[in-house]
Write a structure and sequence with these properties.
The chain is an alpha+beta fold and 228 residues long. 52% of the residues lie in helices and 11% in strands. The strands form 2 sheets. It has a 4-stranded mixed β-sheet with strand order 1-4-3-2, with no helix packed on it. Strands 5-6 form a two-stranded antiparallel sheet. Helix 5 (109-115) runs antiparallel to helix 6. The two termini are 37 Å apart.
């Protein structure tokens, strides 16, 4: 669901860890524990590896020591900010199969874009690339869902102008939910860039608000961990 997924889609060249979104039922939690044991993975930070902490939105971090995976960091979550439940994300996932018939299940690009809307500046260039890649792959025969995704998530003025010119009726309908779309008719690229920057700052602020109570809880976990 993170940088490695962006690598699969071609929106990143490398990622130093692997982020997993997992189903948080008891049976699957047991399977997850077994997989982590195979990787000789140990928890490297708070919070504790606890279904309750995961359910509240925390990420649990591990470092692997098994041969072939030495030093690899694995982060596990069971829910994402303002995202649907796991089964919904699973139903619309993308599956890649390599030459050895190994399957890799990724968040679909629209869901990955939403998941990458964080307060970290490094995530936003990947969002831009993901939308561009999706538009390039589906531009010839777009569905209504594709068109809505591009109009709602495109991050460059040039692509927005192109999309609004190609799909003017739908762009007009979506102006209520994304007001900057009305700027495309004036071809004001500088104003569009400023509006896009404002969108980023607003989304980063929402992400900080979401994580603030979780950060306070992490501090409590750290204090308890330090106490004798």
């Amino acid at each position: 669901m993170g940088g490695q997924a962006c690598v699969f889609y071609g929106a990143a060249q490398v990622s130093k860890d692997i982020d997993f979104l997992v189903l948080a039922d008891q049976e699957n939690f047991i399977r997850l524990e077994a997989a982590l044991a195979t990787l000789q993975a140990s928890r490297i930070a708070v919070p504790p590896f606890d279904p309750a902490a995961l359910e509240r939105g925390h990420a649990v971090h591990f470092r692997c020591r098994a041969p072939g995976a030495e030093g690899l960091r694995v982060d596990v979550m069971t829910r994402l900010r303002e995202m649907p439940a796991f089964h919904v994300l699973w139903d619309r996932r993308t599956t890649f199969v390599d030459d050895h018939d190994t399957e890799y299940h990724l968040l679909c690009i629209p869901d990955l874009v939403r998941a990458k809307k964080t307060q970290r500046s490094k995530d936003w260039p990947m969002i831009e690339l993901l939308v561009t890649i999706h538009n390039r792959e589906h531009g010839a025969l777009p569905t209504d869902a594709h068109i809505d995704f591009w109009l709602c998530e495109a991050r460059t003025p040039e692509l927005l102008v192109e999309l609004c010119a190609r799909f003017p009726d739908r762009a007009h309908e979506l102006q209520a939910s994304r007001p900057l779309l009305q700027l495309t008719s004036e071809r004001s690229l500088d104003e569009l860039r400023a509006a896009l920057d404002a969108e980023v700052r607003s989304e980063q602020s929402r992400d900080r608000v979401y994580w603030e109570p979780l950060r306070r809880e992490l501090e409590q976990f750290r204090r308890e961990h330090r106490e004798p």
